[in-house]
Amino acid sequence: MSERISAPGTSHARGRAGADPGALDDDATLHAMGYPRKLTRRFQAFDNFAISFTIINIISGIFSSFGFGMNAGGPRILVFGWIGVSVMVLFIGAAMAEVASAYPTSGALYFSAGKLAKRHKGAWSWYTGWLNFVGQVGGTAATGYAAATFIQAFIALQWSSYEPTAHQTVLITALIIALQGLANTYTVQLVAVLNRISVWWLLIGLVVIVSTLTVMPDDHQSASFVTHFANNTGFTNGIYGGMLGLLVTSWTFTGFDGSFHMSEETVRATVNAPKGITRAIGYSAITGLILMLALVYSIHDYDQVAGSSAPPVQILIDGLGMGTAKVLLLIVIGAMLFCGLANLTSNTRQIFAFSRDGAMPGSRWWHTVSPRTRTPVKAVWLAVGCSLALVLPGWWSHTAFTAIVSVNVVGLFLAYAVPIFLRLRLGDEFRAGPWNLGRWSRPVGILAVTWILLSSVLFMLPQASPITVDSFNYAPIALAVVLVVATVWWFATARRRFQGPVSYGRPDEVAAMDLV
């Protein structure tokens, strides 16, 4: 990976070695893309990194999906699958980062898709934007639901008479998302502070959990236990069961486009946004592997833990006792809450940008910015409302809720793939920003798109046997609904009014429109 300086949109990736990336003025870059500045630039490099690191959130992701991995491949897939998939995700992040450096806008994926497409710019941008929107809304809903589930697990440990219900889970989820909406309503500075706190919460929490699991249990599994393989998926083919286990890592590594979406609020965005993406993935890969190993080697009775309702919680109870397990569970819950907050922030910026280009119903509402807080408050509450709408089916059926939010990962990764694929098609015509991959751009991009397509197929396949109403994987149906609605809408009205990202005028004209 390299950082080469070239004026965005004016030259290829042949910049002056050693030049100062800060020489590229953020506002001038935004004006050159046809947009006035409406949002406050208060995100430094660490803040931009923090948003993606918090959304990836290895504590939340691993604790939520560890049980699935124990039954789909076991330690061998949990550990070595984590390493392999992390490398592939880093390729995706690097390819996305290169695009982010060239087009540092809140529109991120859909904006760059519209700019990189040679033909049908509006259609490429339209589908990318809606996949990104639905994926992010599903992520906010799923993270809130996971937090509500673990909160109830903590309450049940504290008061044995408490029995979690679907209704209680939905109500707690709604309260969590509403509170996260309030936090996003009051200034970018507050969100930035909370995201800084979240990074230290994750890192210190990781140290506490790993240290406790290393020191306190009377015994651990032998070194060779990491090669143990288990296939409790119901499928007789062990290779297929193990491949399903790779989804644990893919589920965890979502949302790193958050750094891209915060570009218009980031200082030196052409460099700090791509750095935020790649650093968030790299640090998450390393810290996640440490946490994964700590949990794996702390398993006592494998079958008992794998069959429990919350395997990671059972590991904590078995190895540390009830009191310590409760304390560590609070760390996990806090990580999930921070994750949801950051996810909603990213979701809001995507709505703001998508509406700015007239791609959403009521666009003139959703891209307005509060003159007092300098945040897109209406977009915040649209994101909250849509997330609550996805949570609501959980009142009647957990399966229905799972079907809706399962499109989160598939929608996001397909949205990631589009601009990377279009950048590959553009070849030498692509005008790179200061942060670029140089000669490695094409091979990294090819690997990134290939892995996205393969992992998306895995997300669509059955994940448990026998296949019943409760075990059926509804992801393909959910994704099909999204694509059908987007297609009908596109051919009915959108293709006549939406031609992709708009320009508000020449750089000097949009500069006069700056509101900050």
CATH C-level category: Mainly Alpha
The total count of helices amounts to 22
The profile of the biggest β sheet is: 2 strands, antiparallel
Please compute the radius of gyration using only Cα atoms: 22 Å
Q: Could you say what the CATH architecture is?
A: Up-down Bundle
Helical content class = 55-70%
CATH overall fold name: Amino acid/polyamine transporter I
- Residue share in β-strands: under 5%
What is the N-to-C order of secondary-structure elements (H for helix, E for strand)?
Answer: EHHHEHHHHHEHHHHHHHHHHHEHHH
CATH homologous superfamily assignment? Amino acid/polyamine transporter I
Secondary structure elements and their pairing?
Blueprint: E1 2-3, H1 26-32, H2 45-56, H3 58-71, E2 72-73, H4 75-102, H5 108-116, H6 121-158, H7 166-185, H8 188-215, E3 230-231, H9 238-245, H10 247-252, H11 258-261, H12 269-297, H13 302-306, H14 311-320, H15 322-356, H16 363-366, H17 377-391, H18 398-405, H19 407-426, E4 435-436, H20 441-460, H21 475-497, H22 507-511
Antiparallel strand pairs: 1-4, 2-3
Helix pairs in contact: 2-8, 2-12, 2-15, 3-15, 4-12, 4-19, 4-20, 5-6, 5-19, 6-7, 6-15, 6-17, 6-19, 6-21, 7-15, 7-17, 8-12, 8-15, 14-15, 15-17, 19-20
